[in-house]
Design brief:
mainly alpha, 5 helices
C-alpha cells in the first residue's frame, strides 16, 4: 500500500509541476503578445487558442495534487455530528461515487481525444493538433481518480474494524484538518 501511495503522491506532484509550467506559459505568452502588439504592432497569432489550451491543461493537471493535499473546501455540518466510524462509512460511499465518476470522465475524455486524432482535428488559427492536449487532460483526471482511490481505501480501513491497511503517511493530519476546517 505504501508503494501505491508513493506512486500516487509522485504522480500528483509531477502533474502539478506540468500544470505550473502551463500557467507560466500562459503568462509568458500573454506578456509577449502585449509587447509584440504595442512595440511592433504585430500580435502573436493564435494567442487566444493557446491561452485557452494551456489554461485547461493547467487546471486539469493540478486536480490530483490539490485533492491529495486536501486543498479543496469540505463542509460537513451534519456529518461532523456522527461518530468517526459513521463518518468513515459516509466517506466510503462519497469516495466510491466520486472515484467512479472521475474515472469515467477520464475514459470519456481519452475517447474524445482518440476521435479528435482519428479525424485530424486542429485548432482553427494555428492549425495545432488538439488531441495531445486532451490526452494530457485525461491523464490529469486519471491522477485525480487515483487519489480518490487512496481516499476510498483509507475510509474503508476506518469503517471496517477488521480491515487493515498500512496507515497512510498523510492520513492523520489530512483527516483531522478536513474535519476541523469544516466546523
Amino acid at each position: 500500500m505504501r508503494q501505491f501511495t508513493a506512486f500516487v503522491a509522485g504522480l500528483s506532484q509531477q502533474l502539478d509541476k506540468l500544470a505550473g509550467l502551463c500557467i507560466a506559459g500562459v503568462m509568458m505568452l500573454v506578456v509577449a503578445n502585449v509587447l509584440m502588439r504595442s512595440i511592433f504592432s504585430r500580435p502573436i497569432l493564435g494567442t487566444y487558442e493557446l491561452v485557452g489550451l494551456l489554461t485547461a491543461m493547467g487546471v486539469g493537471l493540478a486536480l490530483a495534487n490539490c485533492a491529495f493535499k486536501k486543498g479543496h473546501i469540505a463542509v460537513g455540518f451534519i456529518v461532523d455530528r456522527f461518530t468517526p466510524r459513521i463518518q468513515a462509512i459516509i466517506d466510503v460511499f462519497i469516495y466510491s461515487v466520486t472515484m467512479g465518476f472521475w474515472f469515467l470522465v477520464a475514459c470519456e475524455v481519452a475517447e474524445y481525444a482518440n476521435n479528435m486524432a482519428e479525424n485530424g482535428m486542429v485548432s482553427s488559427t494555428t492549425q495545432i493538433p488538439i488531441y495531445p492536449f486532451i490526452y494530457l487532460l485525461a491523464l490529469g483526471i486519471l491522477g485525480l481518480s487515483l487519489v480518490l482511490l487512496l481516499m476510498f481505501l483509507n475510509s474503508i480501513s476506518k469503517a471496517l474494524p477488521g480491515f487493515s491497511l498500512a496507515r497512510l503517511p498523510w492520513q492523520s493530519e489530512w483527516q483531522d484538518n478536513t474535519r476541523k476546517a469544516s466546523r
